[in-house]
Amino acid sequence: MTADTHESRRSPAARRPVVVTVAVVMVYLSAFANVLLGILVLLSRYQVARAEVLAVSLLGAAIILFGLLLVAVASGLARSSRLSRVLATIYLAVLITLNAVTIATTDGWDWSTAIQLAVQVLVVVVLWAPPGSRHFARAAAAE
To answer: Per the UniProt record, which residue ranges are transmembrane (predicted)?
Structure first.
């Protein structure tokens, strides 16, 4: 099989829309930012009252975990996997909840967590908005 025949089998309609590519990049950035935020929240347990150490530790660990899960799902999004889109949405919903809890329970992470929250909501909207939905539907029909 030559490169010419491989390229000729690809239809222009199978190309990923720019909005989906932007969403994939935003998912990667959000995932890595969540891992960093989770580490910082986890380290901030040394600055809270003794009664809050466990809650802050669990919150930081959960943010790290779901950030890493989001990294794993991002490559599937780049390959137009519908399962990855659903998993990314679930993980982002959990991260949105965890970030809201972080804003409500901690003092030092309000601005960075609010930015993370806004980016995550934007990613979910982009993944499920019509251009993204059409792309994932076409990818499912092609399978």
So the answer is: 18-41, 53-74, 86-105, 111-129
113 part of a folded domain: yes
For 45-53, which contacts have Cβ atoms below 8 Å and span 24 or more sequence positions?
47/108, 48/106, 52/105
Which domain range does residue 117 map to?
24-142
Cα–Cα dist 92/108, whole Å: 22
Answer yes or no: is 126 within a domain. Answer: yes
pTM, rounded to two decimals: 0.78
How would DSSP label each residue in 67-86? Answer: HHHHHHHHHHHHTT-HHHHH
Domain count, the chain: 1
- Whether residue 8 is contained in a domain is answered as no
Per-residue pLDDT 10s for the chain (143 aa) are: 555 554 444 454 467 788 888 889 999 999 999 999 899 888 888 888 888 889 889 999 999 999 999 999 998 998 888 999 999 999 999 999 988 888 887 776 678 888 888 999 999 998 888 878 888 877 777 76
